[in-house]
Amino acid sequence: MMNKSAEPAVRARDLRVVRGGRPGRTAIDSLTFDLRPGQVTGLLGPSGCGKSTLMRAIAGTQARVSGTLDVLGHPAGSAPLRSRVGYVTQAPSVYADLTARQNLDYYAAVLDPSLSRADRAGRTARALADVDLDDHADRLTGSLSGGQRSRVSLAVALLGTPELLVLDEPTVGLDPVLRRDLWNLFHRLAGERGTTLLVSSHVMDEAERCDRLLLMRAGRMLADDTPEALRRRTGAATVEDAFLALVDAERDREAASAGTPAREPGTPAREPGNDPAAPGTPGTPDQDGTP
Amino acid sequence: MNLSRTLATTRRVLRQLRHDPRTIALLMIVPVVLLTLLRWVYDAHPSVFDNVGASLLGIFPMITMFLVTSIATLRERTSGTLERLLSMPLGKADLIVGYALAFGLLAVAQAGFATAVAIWGLGLEVTGSPWLLLVVALLDAVLGTALGLFVSAFAASEFQAVQFMPAFILPQLLLCGLLAPRDSMQPVLEAISNVLPMSYAVDAMNEVLRNTEVTADFFRDTGIVAGSAVLVLALGAATLRRRTA
Q1: What Cα–Cα distance (Å) separates residue A110 from each residue in A88, A113, A203, A288, B17?
Q2: Which of A272, A268, A278, A214 lies closest to A246, judged by CA?
């Protein structure tokens, strides 16, 4: 663990994802970034900007991904990662006709079939306590409220003590108290268990709670920095204002270059100085894409 | 494939069913009610009831398991649980065999109850062993599960999934020899019925109905049903993708 901690948990180089039918549209275009281990990184941007697609690519469930995408030192989605990466989709992926505990018991058995019944019960209880659902453990998941159901889904991801947690809008629809508790949990996981977290949100005030931020817009990375540095760089008071300032600046640049032909998909060229993906980018843009 | 993961899947599917007692009640009672109805329909022709009744004992499990599986796996696909499972270290065979085992067990209960009522309650005359009827019913159920799993990949909604029942099952029902002997059909239809698995399920049931011994034809027919089930299960496995667009 010690010598590994210097390596990025996720390493993306010139990442591109095509979605929809053929020929399809480019949902993510030439993304290059690193995810630092043991930190809570926020992935922010307007809905439809490619956040979920990027998360699916990291979790290994997204088809038609090109470029380099390494997760914990392995290509995203490869077999050794399946028990080391926890992924929570926006919609809770749990069985509505099982209780919360039965859901967790099944997923625990899938993650580690060598566990005894008692060990599974222990892991299940810990995960339920993590998301503060002990009181509702034996109720049918379908009869829980939306927020409780999404916490059951989150608990599933915590079962196997994953090294990387990819959480797609985990706090949507939750009340402020629960949201605060969950963010405290995220930081506790990073601090105590050394987990790397990538948490998406379209609520900008949550950005302040992250160690680091990735700002996306229209399938491209707008910024990759700490919340504080973003505010400083743009002279904004909040991350929300910083994001808006960056979007406006990008729009101005697009308008300025409107006369010139539009950038074709797949052309990696971007104006120098415009690439916010700071760490490790120089000297790597010619990297070959491996699927 | 990993046995613990497969059994965990079976246990999970059965637990889901346990929370749905109405479905279990319908699965158990409907075939028996229909058989009873049929007994009175053929009130004056008990030998016709023997023929049709034995065939239906093989057909019910296939139809019900087809419906149950196609909806259950469609739900897995649309609720995101399938995507989550396939992002975990679960083999596709673990999932498919887990489902087949769970619904196979359910089918044994269903067919056992229906067979018992048909033989002892409704006076269905079977020359061979009732246990063989159960074996055929189990194979039919696994075939139904396999078909349901396979077609669920082509359904985008539960509406569509239900429509696959008449599309996939009714033609087999018409051509399986239940309505008229297969060799008396128009030759093209007979040829088609020769490649449909339900025809062999019904043939196997009729072998048990007529012979005290286990015949070579019985082995051939059940072998074809089992082989079809394995083939369709493999096709079903191919429709499970870890990566989707």
Answers
A1: 16, 6, 33, 35, 19
A2: A214
Residue A36: its pLDDT value, please? 93
Rounded Cα gap, residues B132 and B203, in angstroms: 13
- Mean pLDDT over the full length of chain A: 86
| d(C-alpha A92, C-alpha B231), whole Å | 33
Of A61, A97, A111, the CB nearest to B244: A61
Alpha helices by DSSP H, A162-204: 176-192
Helices (H), chain A: 51-59, 100-111, 117-130, 146-158, 176-192, 227-234, 239-256
Interface predicted TM-score (ipTM): 0.90
Q: Determine the average pLDDT of the residues in A189-202.
A: 94
Asked if B243 is an interface residue toward chain A (Cβ–Cβ < 8 A), one would say yes
Q: Side by side, which strands form the sheet with A25-35?
A: A25-35, A10-19, A65-71, A74-75
Average of per-residue pLDDT across A48-70: 94
CB spacing of A106 vs B12 below 8 angstroms: yes
Amino acid residing at A132: D
Show the DSSP H helices in chain B as ranges: 3-18, 21-41, 46-79, 81-86, 92-116, 130-152, 158-168, 170-175, 187-195, 197-210, 216-238
Mean pLDDT of B186-201: 95
Asked if B80 and A60 come within 8 Å (Cβ–Cβ), the reply is: no
The span from the CA of B10 to the CA of A173, in Å, is: 33
What pLDDT, on the 0 to 100 scale, is given for residue A257? 83
Q: How confident is the model at residue A259 (pLDDT cuts 50, 70, 90)?
A: low
CA gap A5, A37 in Å, rounded: 6
User: Does residue B44 register a pLDDT over 90?
Assistant: yes
pTM: 0.86
DSSP string, A20-85: SSSS-EEEEEEEEEEE-TTSEEEEE--TTSSHHHHHHHHHT-BSSEEEEEEETTEETT-GGGTTTE
Quick check: A268 pLDDT over 70? no
Name the β-bridge partners of A56.
none
Q: Count interface pairs A-B at CB distance under 8 A.
A: 87
